Amino acid sequence: MFGVYRVFVLLVFVSQLCNGFYLPGSYMHTYSDGDSIFAKVNSLTSIETELPFSYYSLPYCKPLEGIKKSAENLGELLMGDQIDNSAYRFRMRTNESLYLCTTSPLNEHEVKLLKQRTRELYQVNMILDNLPALRFAKQNGVTIQWTGYPVGYSPPNSNDDYIINHLKFKVLVHEYEGNVMEVIGTGEEGMGVISEADKKKALGYEIVGFEVVPCSVKYDPVKMTKLHMYDPVPSVNCPLELDKAQIIKEHERITFTYEVEFVKSETRWPSRWDAYLKMEGARVHWFSILNSLMVIFFLAGIVFVIFLRTVRRDLTKYEELDKEAQAQMNEELSGWKLVVGDVFREPEMSKLLCIMVGDGVRITGMAVVTIVFAALGFMSPASRGMLLTGMIILYLFLGIAAGYAGVRLWRTVKGTSEGWRSLSWSIACFFPGIAFVILTVLNFLLWSSNSTGAIPISLYFELLALWFCISVPLTLFGGFLGTRAEAIQFPVRTNQIPREIPERKYPSWLLVLGAGTLPFGTLFIELFFIFSSIWLGRFYYVFGFLLIVLLLLVVVCAEVSVVLTYMHLCVEDWRWWWKAFYASGSVALYVFAYSINYLVFDLQSLSGPVSAMLYIGYSLLMAIAIMLATGTIGFLTSFYFVHYLFSSVKID
Description:
This protein is α+β, with helices and mostly antiparallel strands. 49% of the residues lie in helices and 12% in strands. The protein is built from 19 helices and 14 strands. It has helices at 2-17, 74-78, 108-119, 199-202, 221-224, 274-277, 286-319, 323-332, 350-375, 386-397, 399-414, 420-448, 457-484, 508-515, 517-535, 543-570, 577-585, 587-601, 609-647; strands at residues 36-41, 84-91, 96-102, 123-124, 126-128, 131-132, 134-139, 142-147, 149-150, 152-153, 162-163, 166-176, 204-215, 255-264. The protein has a 4-stranded antiparallel beta sheet, with no helix packed on it. Strands 3-14-12-13 form a 4-stranded mixed beta sheet, with no helix packed on it. It starts with a helix and ends in a 5-residue tail after the last helix. Residues 1-20 form the signal peptide. It comes from Arabidopsis suecica (Swedish thale-cress).
């Protein structure tokens, strides 16, 4: 009876929570009139260099209580985010114009740094209530939305640079009615529930928008140094004349001021990110993507239908013959039926194949689960770093699947479990080892540039601890499960002497490389938006479409690999193992080539060898991960196809 009562109480509690469950974003804050709200600042970023730097690496005003770093998750640290508090203070629904500080005379180093950051188009990324500052700019007569504001600007036909030292903020607020709704948050503020007890506290205003207009204004430093932080100053209009703007040069003292205006908005808190996700530069061309998907579905369907009819006809014709006719047919005809004694012969470098398949299973599982959760709204842009953190956690725990798949394939190929421990260790260290080498080289480049994108040495040890304390043991455990699983029995015996493979007019690797074009066709449109999100600072939010593309990619990789395997068997080439892997895995070559094309034609502003090496290094790492995932999909599908095909043939 007591157990039934507990279940009843749990159901009542869950039903109450279901009144207003909101997945994306952080825990909702409500503010009363006059409440103090402090903005935060993230790393300075630029699409020209891709090297983030700390906000306080430039001579900006520091808060009175000192600089305090916000708690950051693993994903934020790896992405180079460094979120600090700032001196910018707002009071709810209080419009005011305030003085911040006046710097000491700029020295040569500060002037050089400010000019360099200005000319490299660095942006200041400010955050208020977890919303990035939004800026509107006109470009070729079109209004474009950007997040952040520039450090400064350089007028055309001029060698002078001017710093942004006055900010005009507009904070959009929505009056919270205080209805009976509980909100569960998943963002940086942690889990929280607004209950009936907090209802009075919840009455107030929600921040639903944060806009900024940057200005450069020249002040009289002698007059301004008499003021204290947050003293009122007259409101100013952004000057258009350069002689009224604050130039960057030695011995200049820069005064920072800001003004804020609160405006009521009809936008509700759950919809406040819509303004960012509908940015002009990041709008997804839905009809173009849908058209491409329909064409690819149509082509894949034709290939699949033709292929099924061909295989079925061969099997039916072969099985309807008696033994003498089969023997005569084997002498007269060539094809896949003649390699029955060699088709399951152990491939070259079988251990490497097992390692790559094991890691491919892990990467594929990580990608599918991450995109599914992102499509459901668990990893919204409001939760910075959550996507990368989730991927790393999934990769660690999917070591069980990697060890199991690799060791079971090893047992199938070798016929014994001997050496499974060494294989499991290799699986646990193969892709992480490649990633570790690439990231270490890139990290030295970031360290040499004093960038906040460099991974701290403490985080290095944390990643190594996660690798060897979680990933490796779980992979070994998965390998142990693989030794206990039922072995896959080959349906035919393998001859002792390998069959000679007939010469071909053209090398088989040409066909393998060409096979990657069809899977690439499912990706190339989405790749543009993914690359724009990574390198141009745009928000990527169409995870539902990405999930469709991923599922389509899995189907096409499987079909392409099976068709290519069947073609090789038909010309009596029984060495299909690696060809099946690279038939679909070769899509990675096209992805890497596309990334180089994107660098040359779409990232023309990217400057410096360090930035180019960072881009190429990360693109190479992504291409290797795609090769392992797509190659594994193609190989496993081909393996089960070949197993099914030769299980259906009558063997003497």
